[in-house]
Here is the input.
Amino acid sequence: MMKISVYGKGGIGKSTLSANISYLLSKRGTVLHVGCDPKADSTRLLSGGKAVATFLSGGKPFVDGSLTCVECGGPGAGKGCAGKGLSMMFDSIAGIDADYRVCDVLGDVVCGGFSVPMRKGNVDAMILMTSEEYMSVYAMNNILRGMRNVNDSPVILGIVLNSRGGDESDVRRFSEAVGIPIVLEMRRSDLFAKAEQEGRTLCELFPESLEVRSIAGLCGSIEGARLYRPVCLAEESMEAIARGRPGVLSKEPPSERAPTFDSFDADRNITYKGDFIMPACTSHGATDLAMMMTDVAVILHGPRNCAYLMEFAFRRRMAQSMADRRGVKMRCNIYSTGLDAMSAFAGGIEPVYEAARRVRADGFGKAFLIPTCSSEIMALDIEDLAAKVSKETSVELIPVKADEAFLSSKYGAAAGFFDAFVKAFCIPSEIVPGTVNVFSRSMYGMGSDESKEDLARLLSLLGLSLNVSMMGYMSAAEASRFCAGEFDIGLRDSEFNRRIAAAISVHTGRRPPLLLDIPEGLAETESWMTRVAEYAGRTEMLGKALGALRERYREGISAVRPVLEGRRVAIYSMHNRDVEWQVRTLKDVGAEIVFIMFGMDSFDDHEARSPSYGDTPVMEGGLCELGNAAEAGRLDVLVTNFPRASRLGVPYSRLGSPRFGVEGAIEWLRILADSMRLPAGRGWRDGL
Here is the structure.
């Protein structure tokens, strides 16, 4: 099969030329004419002026003797993805056998779908069509630039100049500069208009005309002709053409830079280093947070595999972090719209209705509607869609907006979730004095009952009580109490939490929430309590509260001091350079800290703290360096957050605790002491 593609700016005459080429070639052999424009008007002159049923509508190819016509079609304006439909159609027509295939293509190669007919294996001869107008020449240059990215082999037959009667010098300058010849010059002729009025090709109605002889000459040169590689002009040269400046036009040099991905994660405020590619997802953050709602469903508008992967990741991390609540059994609350290529092509709306009906049948009255990258590419109005589906299905869909920057974070749309959550569940209500709401994006390991009890215990020392804790599983009823809280506290002073704090303040009309680091260890917890007391106006209770804290800490560490005092301990930390509270706590029980080593991170955390650790040796290294240092340091135990460190054969324990305050520090020391009681060496590795 000889594969021919005709590209050019919209309205330049591609469909007319393509139809006439197909008609003439059908006299030599069988022809498959493929209309690649969503307007579905390429085959009109080959089907007697009648519309051919499109691939999108499920229509079958139109066959007239040796000529077979296929129209791709497309979704309605502003809906779906026509480019995706084009790639699907090419898969479906792969089995149609013909001597020639002629593709009439929309000249937009910014969309990957419309580049399918120019890719390797899909084209043997490519025709570029232009008029003498600058924007037509500019489009042709852009097509050549796009072609260099997907197919730089010699497949270009040449340029067809469809003259509108203007100055043709720019086209000729361009042709000479890129080294691609003008193979056909078409002049304005009333015969084309007469043929179109009859719904026929010029070649069929006026076979003896001069115009037909010119097109026939082009068809005769297609097979065996010299072909050219894609070459485009630099932007400076295109500007010179636009301004009519004389001089030599320069070609755009081939790109020597390998494709790269953005390395900055806007949500987490980190930058990936070296060759490490940033993991990014449009909806991961929002889905993680939304699945915390025990009686609210999550509709993920995208392929099924997105929902499978996100549910697996969510449940695995929740299990590993022990972020459970006693008596709470998590329902399966995630639903996928099952968006596939065909439904995306058609607009991707009906699958949302189907998912909402399943949600209603399973007993959920509310559901977050979260877009994936597939639905984002289609540019769906997620708020308008949620409103329509809610009205027709009686399920309250809560739309979650994607991040403004596409694929800008591993945990995409987390901020969009909090915005949606505040609007949907922060119902104005009477404030209960002395109550505190706590929120954080980093919820894993922080939402267990023990953690909440620790937090409530700290607040109670200041005469405060915990109202809503947005750090783990919660129900819609719990969430609806948010506006009853008198104070709001965010755990971690991060760029992300500052945005959430601003949204809460705007929605509730209250003063901005207090943003604090998580209370861990004695000194940090004392600082945390001091800030909270100042924020809530409870400074008169602070002295007694701090005294109770210190007494509980002394009591807790005294039980493990005999086991840990004098022991040689090292710390190995990945992704976190702030281990200050662990160092202080170890010194409080008399342990000897041999060294602190930080792993070689794949990213820079722009919000990370790097405290000074005094005389304690601090170094960087991987697992090999850690093994050497551990052997030389004659360690009794290694404290680490890196699971692979267990391969060293040294007793090891976790680096932190999922609990808050001094209770977290006491529990961490108890676990460390238990590690010391286990046999070392081979017995240590086999003992568990």
In short: Confidence is low (pLDDT under 50) at residues 257-261. Residues 304-321 form the longest helix (18 residues). The radius of gyration is 34 Å.
